[in-house]
TrEMBL record:
This is Uncharacterized protein. Residues 212-244 are annotated as: Disordered. Residues 217-244 have a biased composition (Basic residues).
């Protein structure tokens, strides 16, 4: 009887729904299910109120979905948790740091602890700042760029927000679509890019650990296709609910 059923763990149900949605959309992206089946399962996912109900939605997909599931966007809550795991202690973060490169190059990779305020002067040079293994302090980390006739690449892991406040003169700042301008939660690390970019280019790239540019472009294309398919499925579902 219903009143004898054990209460559902709502946190476990929420997390299971996220995993189930990722598996369903990955199965659709790989052609294992068609448009109608995608819509049916996503509708059932919203109504599911137990873990067994969720398991029934993916029982035929488990073991058949390949890399697509691993390449799905990271949900907001887990991404925030992943970031806070490597946050540097405030006492370990230097207040200021400055590096100047003239007709040379700047490379910062691997495990490092950026200062609270970092100044990189890049004139007729190239700079690459890799934050994937960096231990950032909580809150804002300022990156002041002085780029003149040069280029700068900032590589960030999924989930790390980047806000650009630099002045751009005959230059360009480009960012990958998945790089947010807002931190997931108060106190989460965020990069704030300031300074001056003159006749120069700045790229903000989202990359997984050890991921090559070609693999990242492929992953981003796959994510965009999945997002478009889900939007189309959502529009079709709304039209069926409101045929007039």
């Amino acid at each position: 009887m219903d009143h004898e059923r054990a209460p559902t763990n709502l946190i476990a149900l929420r997390d299971a729904k996220q995993r189930t949605e990722a598996l369903i959309t990955a199965g659709y992206a790989e052609g294992l299910i068609d448009d109608d089946e995608l819509e049916r399962r996503l509708d059932a996912l919203q109504d599911a109120d137990s873990l067994p109900a969720l398991e029934r939605l993916t029982v035929d997909l488990v073991g058949h979905v390949g890399e697509a599931a691993a390449n799905l966007p990271v949900p907001v809550a887990p991404a925030s948790v992943a970031l806070t795991r490597d946050v540097a202690l405030t006492r370990d973060v230097a207040p200021r740091r400055s590096i100047v490169a003239l007709f040379a190059s700047i490379e910062q990779r691997g495990t490092w602890v950026p200062a609270r305020r970092n100044r990189f002067v890049d004139v007729f040079a190239a700079a690459e700042l890799d934050f994937r293994d960096a231990h950032l302090g909580p809150g804002e980390t300022h990156i002041e760029l002085r780029c003149v006739f040069s280029s700068a690449r900032l590589i960030v892991p999924p989930g790390l927000a980047v806000r650009v406040e630099a002045n751009i003169v005959l230059g360009a700042v480009e960012r990958d679509h998945g790089v947010s301008e807002r931190a997931h939660a108060p106190g989460d690390p965020i990069l704030v890019i300031t300074g001056l970019v003159v006749l120069a280019s700045v790229e903000i790239l989202e990359r997984l650990p050890d991921e090559r540019d070609r693999d990242a472009r492929k992953r981003h294309r796959q994510q965009r296709r999945q997002a478009r398919r889900i939007r189309r499925a959502d529009r079709r579902a709304k039209r069926r609910l409101n045929p007039g």
